[in-house]
Amino acid sequence: MGSVGLLFVGAVLFINGVMLLGWVDEKSAAPMNFFVGGLQIITPTYLIFTANGDANAILAASGLYLFSFTYLYVALNITLGLDGTGLGYFCLFVFVSALVFSWLNFTRFADPGFGVIWLYWAFLWLLFFLLLGLKQERLGRYTGAVCAIQGWVTGWLPALLLLTGGYAAMSGTVAVVLAIFGLVVFGGLYPVLGRRSPGSVPAAPGPQVSA
Hints:
single chain, Serine Threonine Protein Phosphatase 5, Tetratricopeptide repeat, 8 helices, mainly alpha, 0% strand
């Protein structure tokens, strides 16, 4: 069930990313944030209630709420026209938590693939904090590009591998490939998009306006 949720996390990250890039109007992105935010409430709740007290299963499922609350926060900010500062500081909380979940995947869960994926998410939510919480407007387009790309490589791709049974044998390979990909692509995009003149400060991960 978590793999299905991850597939649609990929979709909402992509939508929020292209919203930040200015390709999609923010109001048209709000429904997807509501849909996926709701799904990511139902999924971990189901997994926790059916875990039969398995501490590792409950721990793994608990991290999903970080994303569901982000997407619902985004949707409400867009719908109600709220300032994005509160969301930005929540993203700081998510950033710190994602670092912990990354470490847990490398150690407790012995899953280096998702260890790297959680580092990707930590980086993205750090960008959201800088953009929304600290109003670093120059990062808007760079954050959008990172968000859109992460929708494919941290959501869509691992979800398909999990759903088709191909992930378990490839976790180490996924970790190495994503680590190299992230350093090269995100590092290469920053000089192009990260230093552009600022636009308007977003109310959510998407341009008014984002993981």
